[in-house]
Write a structure and sequence with these properties.
five-stranded parallel beta sheet; FCP1_dom; binds magnesium ion; single chain; alpha/beta; HAD-like_sf; Rossmann fold; 6 helices
Length: 177
């Protein structure tokens, strides 16, 4: 089960007077259709439920991929915790102990739950899950999702994905042949 972050990972959203505008990361549709083969997908965002739902609707409209309908779970800010960060401020994080819930564990052992996020601090208490991707805020030439799909395909058969050294994955993975 691949757990996906949303903001600055799959999209960049901005609230405007007319509502929320979501810019989608390049190759997002191809990425989702591609990884939905080898992986079950889930969503964990520190955004609000409204924001998450609006963005997922935009993804569906643009790509046809119904991530909201296909996700094993859709976890928003209410599933995150506040913790004190190094600078003394409080910030959201994603307590990976929630992956131990019985209904998850029965199908997805913790060795089989990689989690994609642009903020490593979100998984400070579950670092073995983390695949960190560069934050995206609109650069049109970005190729990280294409690169990531290749990387995810290369590790899906590893028995213990927590033990796989995932730091530096991007520099070891070409974005295309
Ligand atoms: Mg993010």
């Amino acid at each position: 089960m691949l757990v996906l972050d949303l903001d600055e990972t799959l999209w960049h959203g901005q609230a405007t007077g007319a509502g929320i505008g979501f810019a989608l990361r390049p190759c997002l549709g191809k990425f989702l259709y591609g990884v939905a083969g080898p992986y079950d997908l889930a969503v964990w965002t520190s955004a609000s439920e409204d924001w998450m739902r609006a963005g997922l609707a935009a993804v569906r409209a643009a790509t046809g991929f119904d991530l909201a309908g296909r996700a094993v779970f859709l976890w928003d800010r209410s599933r995150c915790s506040l913790r004190r960060l190094e600078d003394g401020d409080f910030g959201w994080h994603k307590p990976a102990r929630k992956f131990r819930a019985g209904w998850i564990r029965s199908k997805y052992p913790r060795t089989r739950i990689p989690a994609l996020d642009d903020l490593a601090s979100n998984y400070a208490a579950g670092y073995g899950h983390l695949i960190r991707i560069e934050a995206w805020t609109g650069a049109p030439e970005d190729r990280e999702l294409r690169r990531l799909a290749r990387y995810l395909a290369s590790i899906v058969h590893e028995a213990d994905l927590r033990a796989v050294e995932k730091r530096g994955w991007a520099s070891r993975t070409p974005s295309e042949d």
